[in-house]
Amino acid sequence: MRLTLRQLQIFIAVAETGTTTAAGARIALSQSAISGALNELEGLLSSRLFDRVGKRLVLNDVGRALLPRARAALDDVQDIEAQFGMGPVGGTVEAPAIRLRVGASTPIGNYLLPALVASYRRTWPAVSVDVRIGNTREVAAAVARLDVDIGLIEGPCHEPDLRVQPWLEDELVIVCAPSSAPPPAGSGAGVPLEALRQASWLLREVGSGTRETVEQALLPKLHHLREEMQFGSTEAIKQAAVEGLGLACLSRCAVEDLVTLGRLVVLKTDLPKLARRFYLVHHARKRLSGNLQRFVAHCVASEMAEGGPEEISHRME
Predict the structure, then answer these.
(1) What confidence tens digit (pLDDT) does each residue in 192-234 have?
(2) Structural domain ending residue among the three candidates 69, 93, 117
(3) Residues 225 and 201: beta-carbon distance below 8 Å
(4) pTM for the whole structure
(5) How far is residue 266's CA from residue 194's CA, in Å, rounded to a whole number?
(6) Distance linking the first and last C-alpha atoms of the chain
(7) 109 found inside a domain
(8) Any bridge partners for residue 50, and if so which?
């Protein structure tokens, strides 16, 4: 075998940091050692892996194709080390340095993922989880760039290189401050559609999965939404709604705390049930390591425990 794991580790470090100097600082090697190993790897593959742009090294098409396979190879080695309690040089250590990189769109990252990570690490304490939170478009783009290993998103995915697996069904509710609730059509009736059309709406930014889902759910019935304000986070929308600035359509799990406190009310309307699907996404060319497969299975098992659909696979192929 002519390729070495050290060469792949150096290649990944350069790909993630952009310079041989920064890569050397990350893995405790000199800049000259990094450059030499990288040149040797490119020689073995008979291909350049980076475009040289000024002082930075940017992955070319060959390097982008190699990156997920190199990460998968190192992930597999880390799995073996974790199973046998081995450190990077073969010595026994208390906890191997295994890190999963998870991207999550805002509602999932704020309200669901912390409990999922905590319960996962109770079973696998040696595995750390780094979480990046953004809107659906940002998370999907991070997965496509392989900046994160897996993404959990709440809206449609428009990245062509990603594999998408349905996950949780999430109920959406329309909320507002008790003092600004539109009157119902009559006793026991819901808020009429015309009142919702005239109301001011608090919406997420363009690119948010929540916004795309809300528009898909409401526009066929309301025809337009009078946008009062636009926000970059669910928490900001919640607080704006509490202050009486308008109506918001948000995940029930995101507003349950303020509804329980009486600071927000869930409106009964004549609309059909509002719901959306959460998704798990990963790069089509990335083979999931054992640790990632266990994390995916844990997420799905948690969903199944809450009565989710049985057809969802416990493994992303």
Answers:
(1) 999 999 999 999 988 887 888 889 889 999 999 999 899 988 8
(2) 93
(3) yes
(4) 0.66
(5) 18
(6) 27
(7) no
(8) 59
